[in-house]
Design brief:
Elements (H helix, E strand, L loop, with lengths): L1 E6 L4 E9 L4 H13 L4 E12 L1 H16 L3 E5 L3 H10 L6 E2 L1
Parallel strand pairs: 2-3, 3-4, 4-5
Antiparallel strand pairs: 1-2
Length: about 100
């Protein structure tokens, strides 16, 4: 997994490349720690190269969303492939996020 983060002032662009599973969850958690500690007004997760998510990854997405909501921010997910979107649909996560 590769993670790229770009802060654009009022928006943080967060790009995930590869798989988010048990083996990479720790790396993802470290990457989102500054976002969780910060202001988190608008976080955009770019998913056009995101290939797989496990339950560990879903938990971290949920943590990110809950923290953003508490701070009055939002998490937007862009360009998620159909297979991963289906996992979000089956788990009920679709209703928790904004998809573009």
């Amino acid at each position: 997994m590769e993670i790229r983060i770009k802060d654009n002032g009022d928006e943080t662009l967060f790009k995930i490349i590869g798989r988010l599973d048990t083996a990479t969850a720790g790396e993802f958690e470290k990457a989102i720690a500054p976002l969780i500690a910060g202001n988190m007004q608008k976080v955009v997760i770019e998913c056009n190269e995101f290939e797989y998510i496990s339950s560990s990854g879903l938990r971290l997405f949920l943590t990110l969303q809950k923290t953003a909501a508490k701070k009055g921010g939002k998490v937007i997910i862009r360009a998620m492939n159909a297979d991963i979107k289906n996992v979000f649909d089956m788990t009920g996560f679709t209703n928790l996020f904004i998809f573009e």
